[in-house]
Amino acid sequence: MMDSRRDFLKKAGILSSLAVSLPTLVNANATAEAFNMCGYAAPKIDKVRVAVIGLGMRGPGAVERLSFIEGCEIVALCDKHPERVEKAQKILTSKGLNAAKSYSGEDGWKSLLKEEKLDLVYICTPWDYHALMSIAAMKAGNHVACEVPIALTIKDCWEVVKTSETTKKHCMMLENCCYDFFEMLTLNMARQGLFGELIHGEGAYIHDLLDLNFAKNGYDQMWRLRENIKYNGNLYPTHGLGPVAQCLNINRGDKMDHLVAMSSNDFMMGEKAKELAGKDSFFQEFVGKKYRGNMNTTLIRTAKGKTIMLQHDVTSPRPYSRLHTLSGTKGFAQKYPTENIAFGHEFIKEEKLKELYDKYTPELVKYIGDKAKEVGGHGGMDFMMDWRLIDCLRNGLPLDQDVYDAASWSCIVPLSFESVEKNCKTVAVPDFTKGAWKSNNPVDITLKGGGNTPIRSKNAKKENVQLDV
């Protein structure tokens, strides 16, 4: 196990160095001087030219959602498997949109970055490629939107941050849960002081993925199952952490300081591998591996003395939950199993909760929420995220999630692994803002300066048919 882990970490370092060593992709305008990307407003882009890389699990949905956004043109599609590219092309042509240029093969993404004139590279590949491709795409002169996590090592987190700063290119991790409706409500309520001073937050990714992780036709080459062997920690922290971190103004008034993590033993994945191998020799290579524990619990303390609890369990048979719990000096909120808010010993009544929704739902959600639900993507939060991203780029606005968020939320993966491996040792959380968290401003959740990006009709066959927003 130790040898395989060293090989993996060595591979991750090689990926970083490879990304840095792509001389033909270096942005001529990059400078060596660090630049604070928090609140950075890049030049406006009237029509955002997008390339989508990775068309397996998440990529086709991204193509579908982006195809509804006016001012967004998908000019290139890429996947290792050419049949996936062709399938994604039909998403565009079925709407009367132009087909994108196709790239495929192991190095197709490299050719894409060399040959295409782009504004945004949208990355939906397996985790091992996220840092590598994000760094290369920024060096090629493009903004980046990448699925979670942005990186799997601290070294790669720092390299992603450095590249964004030196190229002045946005690197937004696509943490869609920040755009879910209750999370947005509680963020605005926290901003308005309804919870008083927030003291504690909880987030999680509790999702029974046991069968999917072992599905032969699920993740390409069983990559996600293999990640459950490489790491014994919180493999997927950002869905729970992102919304809580925004409510606590992490990187914008406070920062995560240190953490401690503990994992249970694995009680199910090893047994599942043996069970499946008894019926199908395909699974024999997964027998006898040391899988990550069923439940990982990570506790984080911030510089200002706040605490965050994160949990990760994608094996146990239990209902889905991201927790999303906020506890303050005046109030309390929790999303699962039902949305509830309290300002004392009891939760408020349903009618009062509706009043809070009416009053404190952010402008962004009121403006685009119904249309986002119509287009879809995890109940609409995916589309709201994509529309907001394109609208910000078109209007030269700062993004809701910057590269420091991407790095600090993602670094929980390797840090939790380190803490678990060292018998729950306390581990410091890097300050990727390099002290700028003390003066960085909180995320602006208004539509000031933007909100003018139209949406194509869901049934449109022509580009000029729009939803009324």
What do you see in this structure?
This protein folds into 2 domains: 48-173, NAD(P)-binding Rossmann-like Domain (Rossmann fold), CATH 3.40.50.720; 177-361 and 403-438, Dihydrodipicolinate Reductase, domain 2, CATH 3.30.360.10. It is 36% helix and 16% strand. The protein has 16 helices and 16 strands. The chain has helices spanning 2-20, 59-66, 82-93, 108-115, 130-139, 154-167, 181-191, 210-213, 223-230, 238-247, 269-277, 350-360, 363-375, 381-395, 403-410, 412-421; strands at residues 48-53, 72-79, 101-104, 120-123, 143-146, 171-173, 198-206, 256-263, 296-302, 307-313, 325-328, 332-334, 340-342, 427-428, 455-456, 466-467. The strands form 3 sheets. An 8-stranded mixed β-sheet has the order 13-12-11-7-10-9-8-14. The longest helix is centred in the N-terminal third of the chain and has 19 residues, at 2-20. The N and C termini lie far apart (54 Å). Its cofactor is NAD(+).
Number of continuous helical runs: 16
- Count the E strands: 16
What share of the residues lie within helices? 25-40%
Distance between the termini: 54 Å
Low-confidence parts: 1-32, 460-469
The profile of the biggest β sheet is:
8 strands, mixed
CATH superfamily of the largest domain: Dihydrodipicolinate Reductase, domain 2
Secondary structure class reads alpha/beta
Q: Major sheet: order of its strands?
A: 13-12-11-7-10-9-8-14
